[in-house]
Amino acid sequence: MTHNYDDDCLFCKIIKGEVPSYTVYEDDDVKAFLDISQGTPGHTLVVPKTHVPDIFAYDPELAATVFSKIPAIATAVKNSNPDIKGMNILNNNGKVAYQSVFHSHIHLVPRYTDHDDFAMIFKDNSGNYDEKSYTEIQNAIKAQF
User: Known PANTHER family for this protein (predicted)?
Assistant: First the structure.
C-alpha cells in the first residue's frame, strides 16, 4: 500500500515517529497505539498508515486491509488483562459524531464492568416511526447503491 501523509496531522506524525506513542502493534499498513485519554485501561486506536480523514475516504482495498487487522488487535487487547469482559469497537466520522482527530481511526475500548468509565446511549425512537417512514429511509439508502 502506498502511504500518503498530511504534515499537519497528529496521527501522521505518530506514524512517522515524530510524536511519541505507546505502540502496541505495527505493520506495513496500520499502527495501533494507546489512546492518550484511556477511556478505560487498554483503550487503543488503530490507524491506517495512509492519511484518510474518515471512513468516507476509504476505498475497498484500504477498508479490507485495515478492517481485517481489527479482530487480532482487539483479541490481543482483550487477552492482555483477565478483567476485560468485553469491548466496544467504534469509528467516529465527522465532528458531529465526536471525531476529534481527522485521520481515520478505530477505537478499541475494553469493558471491565457495566459501571466502568465509559457509556454509550442508544435511545429508542421507534415510537416516532411508522411503516411509511421506515420505508422512505430504506429506499433513500438503497438508491445510493
Answer: ADENOSINE 5'-MONOPHOSPHORAMIDASE HNT1, HIT FAMILY PROTEIN 1
